[in-house]
Structure prediction request, 444 residues.
Amino acid sequence: MIQIFSLVLVGTVLFFIFLKIAVQGPASSAPDSSAVLAVQQMVNLDGLSFAGGQRLLDATEFHMLQSSAELREVAAAYRKERQALALLWISLLLNDVNGLWRFRRFLVRNGVPATMGDEMQILTDAVRAMLFLSFLRIVILTFGPFAFSGAARNARQMVEKMSHSSASVLNRLPRHGWPEIERTWHKGLA
Amino acid sequence: MSHLSYYVFFLGVALEGILAYRLIKGALWRYYPFFAFYIAYVAAQSIIGIAILQSAPGAYPVWFWRIGVGNICLRFLVIWEVFRHTFPKASPLRRMVTRQFTIGVLALSTVLSGMLWAIEIYGKSHSVYLAMERSFGFVQAVLVLTVLILARYYHLAVGRNIWGIAVAFGMYSSLSTAASALVDLAHSSFFPFWYFLSPLSVVAMLSLWTWALWIYAPNPIPNADTLIDATGDFDRWPEDWGRAISTVRKVMHP
Prediction:
């Protein structure tokens, strides 16, 4: 009886796991690495190209300094400096989000095929990234750079996701057309 | 059989026909032969079932339960199809994952044998077929989920065809596990629901399969540039080492 009852439970749990996978849909294939690189070059993703975001919000060194009474002042200065750097990085990431969003609209305006679903997806991603980064900025301003150290990874992933979706749109164009796209894009920026 | 049951039954048959048509038309059966074989079996089962319903309706239930056992066993072909496409022979992951997967299959087979042996001591069991359905369904759902989890773990992209086959099959197997176990737990109250739920879940699975196979969307082939070919390095290493030794000897004994 227990075995049958446990199978009812296990079967139900398995069903909901599969349902979750079904709702997520098939994973969209990752864009070509050359397209990702091309987007990074075209849009100048300064925030994303900075690899030390996670370390910037890491509190280990601060705690080490803080633990020693003589180094408390140094720790306070260190914290203030880190806060300024973290805020600068967040603003760079926000610039990246804006740039990617504009670049995406530019691609579609120039005739790159995209569905309404694609557009809704990028809009949702952009709004979500902006909200998250703005929230993170407020948190850093209010509670300091080390209050929300795990967020660095999420912030980076959000911008990375946007850059990948722009790369997959760029990938729909023949490769020999990319330099022309880059020229037109930079001309539009100037 | 009520009118509604007939509608569900014929909807299932129609979907099987569409699926068979897609497999033949796009020559998809060549890419997915094990899955195509299973669909052929299911379609044949339905056609013979209709013939029996027309000629000798009384014999249909007995025939259905008997032929159903074959159907349950053949579902392993669907799992194998999902596995071999997710980890193709050329993939360096194949050898490693095969070992893990084989261990998993052996462990689950042991569990399965235990479950089937336990039928003897149920006392209240209503059908051997239902016991098989829930035991095999559980094992099959776990196996398909394992393949999907491994694919996600190793960041392998799964195409629409295999994704649809795996997810629909997993949903059906897990639902059939829970439903056939519930029938034994609360036979009188749940049986009328199961009577509709079971064919409806088959129809849902067939619908998802039809959608998944409507176009040919195989698993993306990993970029050959990103694969590391260690065999070349292993061959080169003894050559380089031998050359280094002979150079040292020449320097020491000119």
In short: Chain A touches chain B at residues 1, 3-5, 7-15, 17-19, 21-22, 26-27, 29-30, 33 (CB under 8 Å). Chain A has nine helices and no strands. The longest helix of chain A spans residues 72-109.
